[in-house]
Amino acid sequence: AEAQFLVGRVYEAGLGVAADPSEAVAWMALAALQGHAGALAAVEAAGAKLDGDQLERATRLAAVRAPRSGADPLGVQPR
Fold first, then answer.
1. Could you give the number of structural domains in the chain?
2. Which residues form the domain of 35?
3. Does residue 7 belong to any structural domain of this protein?
4. What is the pTM for the complete model shown?
5. Which end of the chain is more exposed for a tag (fewer CB within 10 A), N or C?
6. Angle at the Cα of 54 from the Cα atoms of 50 and 59, rounded to 5 degrees
7. CA distance 50 to 21
8. What DSSP character marks residue 72?
9. What is the pLDDT of residues 20-74, one digit of tens each?
10. Does 75 reside within a domain?
């Protein structure tokens, strides 16, 4: 969760990558789903700055990356 949160912060600030608020919110949302203490507040603050298209993109990105029920941490589905 901490790594996901930090990736979100990197995209939020544009540290070594192009700033991308949708990527930032998507990564921080994943951290929040994993129980990161500060991620939910960060998602709310950063998400409030997104327009509709950016928010939709962030939602899609997070959904693609979110762990699936029954999957192991590497995303491998059980047989």
1. 1
2. 2-65
3. yes
4. 0.83
5. C
6. 105
7. 7
8. -
9. 999 999 999 999 999 999 999 999 999 999 999 999 999 999 999 987 755 554 4
10. no
